[in-house]
Amino acid sequence: MDRRNFLKSGAYLALAGTATQLLSGCQTLGELASIADPYLTDDGRTILNILVSAGDAFTTLDPEQEYYLGRSVAANLFSQYKPWNNAAANEYINLVGKCVASASIRPETFGGYHFQILDSNELNAFSAPGGLILITRGMLRCCKNEDEVAAVLAHEVGHTSHQHGVRSIQNSRITSLATLIGTEALKREGNENILKLVNVFEDSLQDVTNTLVSNGYSRSNEKEADLAASEILVKVGYDPHALISLLETMDTRLRPGASDFAKTHPSPSSRIEDLASVITTKSTHISAARQRRFSQAMRSV
């Protein structure tokens, strides 16, 4: 297709006129297409169809695609956080993590669940698509027992099982699309920016990384992951109240403005309030054997 003809047709101006509508209520590129369609030339409609197809591809990743996306996201994270090469501690984290993952709504992924400790004092944990879950030493120091370790890992498994990382691609790509459509630069330097428009989904990898490190998931995503964690803990035999007690400890240690859990998650107090309404069971006793296992594995953390 000749992009020069597309620009001369003025169809991109019609696209620009839909940007405000997109940001005010549209959630998918398909909705954008339906709004723009009556105003587009055939060339303009063809370009928009290319974008819709690209968007659909990224919101229906198969398990193998999700796995490789997750590996790339993890590689990005490892450029910011150094893995902690303590074999015994990492083996323990994988033991607990795979136990809770087995009780999730998605017990299997293409590459399986893998857990890695990060050598950082931040209070943080990350769930890359496909089952690659990272947790900092700082977060582990907040845990007083194995049930609390299981709680934070179950929360991250909840993000994976509900595919929150993959979903973060679509929304931010749509925002970038609408922003690009509405820029004056698109009108002045059309050829260059139309190319950016057609290739906008190539930045999806960075979308997920930004969500994990900078922007955080939505409040509804965090609530869904907390609910998933509480259900997982009950199924496996851990105390679901451990998630609340962990959040209470975190609430005393998080520093406003720090680049850690506080930056990317709702306040612990708000999450505790949400959990209190759904956890109706009584606290369970933590066995001495389980506590010894935790203390031995975490002594060097």
TrEMBL record:
Coiled coil: none annotated. GO terms for cellular component: membrane. Its cofactor is Zn(2+). One of its GO terms (molecular function) is metal ion binding. Residues 90-277 form the Peptidase M48 domain. Signal peptide: none annotated. Binds 1 zinc ion per subunit. PROSITE patterns: PROKAR_LIPOPROTEIN. GO terms for biological process: proteolysis involved in protein catabolic process. Keywords: Hydrolase, Metal-binding, Metalloprotease, Protease, Zinc. The keyword Acetylation does not apply. The keyword Zinc-finger does not apply. Belongs to the peptidase M48 family. PANTHER family: METALLOENDOPEPTIDASE OMA1, METALLOENDOPEPTIDASE OMA1, MITOCHONDRIAL. This is Peptidase M48. It comes from Nitrincola tapanii.
